[in-house]
Write a structure and sequence with these properties.
about 100 residues; mainly beta; 4-stranded antiparallel β-sheet; 3-stranded antiparallel β-sheet; 2 helices
Length: about 100
Amino acid sequence: PNAGTQSPRAPGEGFVAPVVIHQELPAWDPPTAAVAERGYTGAVRVVIGPDGKVQDASLIRPVHPLYDRLLLQAARRWGYRPATRFGEPTPAEKTVEIRLTPR
């Protein structure tokens, strides 16, 4: 699985985006050869607290029914150097694009 990132929402003046410390994706174990031959994409939104821990994770676009629950569980364990506004840690949102590639 591959994860791309986009900028957090509502950055504004003096805002520095959170930086990934760890953002591991769960293993993708397709149930059948037919499923394994296809690629899947989706996106998850994480709310990152001023301590850099994920406070909430939600699917923006589901990836695959068998993967989505694993993805949300993993996303809640991700860690970041927190976003800052004028040097002070601040909450932020980040959208992470997910791509499961065919085998």
